[in-house]
Amino acid sequence: METITIYPKNEKQKSLLKSLLEEMKIRFDIAKSDDTLMSKEEFYAKIDRSIQQAKEGDVKTLTKEKQNELLGL
């Protein structure tokens, strides 16, 4: 079965969606998330900072062994 992720904008939308799903007897989960999505501007600013760090040589390299360890290989 597929999963559908819905992001209501406010409490009213969340309540309405929850009521609808309950009425239709559709199983659902509501998970609290402390993660906040970055705005488009924040995302691009972070990318620009990373590019600048790379240009300045402020980079970290991983050995093959460390890569395999992180990837569980």
User: Are there runs of 5+ residues with pLDDT below 50, and where?
Assistant: none
Order of helices and strands: HHH
Counting DSSP E segments of at least 2 residues, the number of strands comes to 0
What is Rg? 21 Å
Major β-sheet profile:
none
Structural class of the secondary structure composition? mainly alpha
Strand content: under 5%
Termini Cα gap: 29 Å
Overall geometry comes to: elongated
- Tally of helical segments: 3
Helical residue percent? 40-55%
- Mean residue pLDDT: 89
Provide a compact summary of the structure.
With 73 residues, the chain is mainly α. Helices cover 51% and strands 0% of the residues.
What key attributes describe this structure?
73 residues, 51% helix, mainly alpha, 3 helices
Q: Secondary-structure map with pairings?
A:
Layout: H1 11-23, H2 40-55, H3 64-71
Tell me what the structure shows.
By secondary structure, the chain is mainly alpha-helical. The chain has a domain at 37-73. The chain contains three helices and no strands. The longest helix is centred in the middle third of the chain and has 16 residues, at 40-55. The mean pLDDT is 89.
